[in-house]
Each structure stands twice: as structure tokens, then as C-alpha cells.
Write a structure and sequence with these properties.
CATH class: Mainly Beta
CATH architecture: Beta Barrel
Helix content: under 10%
Largest sheet: 8 strands, antiparallel, barrel
Number of strands: 8
Distance between the termini: 34 Å
Radius of gyration: 22 Å
Number of domains: 1
Order of helices and strands: HEEEEEEEE
Strand content: over 45%
Length: about 250
Amino acid sequence: MKHLFLLFGILISTTLFAQKAEKDTTVEAVGNGLFRVAYAAQIPLGDYAARFGFTNHIGASAGYRTKSNWVFTFGGYYIFGDNVVDKNTLLSSITNSSNIIITSGGEQAFVNISQQGYYVNFEIAKIFPWAAPNPNSGFMFGLSGGFMEHWIGLRADGNNVPQLLGEYEKGYDRLTNGIILQEFIGYHFQGSSRLLNFYGGFEFTQGFTGNRRSYDIPTMSVKDEDYTDFLIGFKVGWMMPFYKREKDKYYYY
């Protein structure tokens, strides 16, 4: 939670500074293309929390904001984290009596276990310029849908553990995927500087996923299961707007 409060504090401070420094009621509302990069700190709930802990998302999206402040974007995000719930027992079937894994060369193996994944989504959002410094900024509410896939990443230094290579790795990675729905509540700031354009707020994710591996080696069982994955967190991003020429003049923000 401390990560979420830190990001929230940074956003609020930046927003107040930007509004004070760049308040301009003469700026016109205009449509523009958008390219955005963002980071999200997420806390898992539901079935997701039974497999992973604190989660990071980083990625980019591109789209268009209309003159009436509707925003349409398509994005892709990389999921990563170090908190795998059963990390200590996941590879117990290939450890020896001393609780270590032996490489093909007879040495102790060092295996990095992590959370890996990605998701793609299409978002529709609406900006309301309430108490905003200009008509192109304001509180933003968004709804999106897409596809998410995540798994347990297993990487042995030197790739010298035969039990974790090729098809064998699939027995441990617990590949899971399915559709997702997301809601966003936050703030969109588009100022008079090309660099000072950002957005941030709370993001909620509901995933309707299922296991895609036929056999799970750690539990020695078939996992034909469906999951309900929930994530809640804070997302903050930087934007690059692109404007077209209208009526022989340019708009610079």
C-alpha cells in the first residue's frame, strides 16, 4: 500500500503545481492524437492473490482524444514481479535431500522464480474539465476490455537444469490467460508545455481466466481450473499529444 500512497502523493503534488503554473482559460478545446507510457503498482485480490503478491505493470498506449474530450486508446503492458506465493515449494520435486537443485554438470543451480505476463486492452474514457486549468484537462473516467496472460517465470543461471528446459518447464509455469475488464478513475492534465502532460489515478482490473497447462508437476495433478483475478492499484503516465493544423494556426501544448 505504501507504493500506492507514494504515487498518489506525487500525482496530487504535480497536478497542483501544473495547474498553478499553467492555468490558461484562453486555451481552446482541440482534438489530438495521444501516445502514452505508464506504470501501475497493483495489489492482487481473489484467485490472483493465491499465486502472486505485489505486481508491476509497465507499457504504452496510443489513440485519439476528441474535441469533446472522449479518449480512445489501444495499449499493451508488461506484467512483472518477484512475489510468487509458493516460491519455496514450487521446485521441491527436483531438489535433493539438502534442499538444493543440481545442474547437469553436478553443481548447485540457482533458479530465479518470478511473475511474468502481459495484457492488451482497448479503452474508452471521458474527461470532465471540472475545476481544470483548461478545457483539455480534467477528471477522467475510463472503461476498457482486453486479454491478459501470466505465468511463473523460471530461469536457471546458465540454463543448465534439464528439468526446467523445453517442454518440462511448462509443467511448472502455470500459464494462465483470459479476458479482462478494467475501470479507471483519475485525472488527465494537458498543459501548454509539450513535456508537462500526464495522467494518473486508480485502476481496477477483473480477469476471467483459466489454467492452460494440462499437467502441474509440483502438485502432480491435472489443473483444469477457472479463476477470477482481481487487481487494484494506482497508475501514472506521461503523454505526448500530436496536433493537426487548423485554420492556418498551430496549437502547442
